[in-house]
Amino acid sequence: MKKVILLSSLLVLAGCSSTTQESGKKKAGKQPVSSLTYSVSKGSIKSKSRLNSVHSLQQAYQRWRGVPYRFGGTDGDGMDCSAFTQTMYQEVYDMSLPRSTYEQVEVGRPIAKDELQPGDVVFFRTGRSSRHNGVYVGDGKFAHASSSVGVTISRLDNVYWRSRYWQARRMIDD
């Protein structure tokens, strides 16, 4: 049964998961997309082709698009932002990221906003102690699990996201 998601102009975000539980079951029928080879080195992987990465990110996003937000969720019935980021990295790069946003912000290396490349992870401060993240997909946009619309793509220059932008981290080295 396909779920209908209504888009709202008001984005209200709950804090993303800060649990340390591992991912649960994956969306039925999902096959990992692994177009890159990598070597793990200080939390980073080396990509063979960033173009393959962009295409793979788009494919993975399309499989999860519209899945509703669910705090602590890790599957097609609902997922939170850190589970979405973790899932994208597992599918596209065959790389395991920690489960929570608070743990993911410790992986990779920090980069400036003007250095963003597809595959970088962007982080936001959405409340006093709440954090949110997503995967940069290029052209000033990032894919994430929004508490108001589910898995979607948003613009970094959107007034909400621009005012809450915190940092970005590169998990993939060229």
TrEMBL record:
Residues 51-172 form the NlpC/P60 domain. It comes from the Bacteria. Pfam families: NLPC_P60. SUPFAM superfamilies: Cysteine proteinases (SSF54001). The keyword Protease applies. Keywords: Hydrolase, Protease, Signal, Thiol protease. InterPro entries: Murein_DD/LD_carboxypeptidase (IPR052062), NLP_P60_dom (IPR000064), Papain-like_cys_pep_sf (IPR038765). The keyword Acetylation does not apply. Belongs to the peptidase C40 family. This is NlpC/P60 family protein. It comes from Oceanisphaera ostreae. The lineage of its organism: Bacteria, Pseudomonadati, Pseudomonadota, Gammaproteobacteria, Aeromonadales.
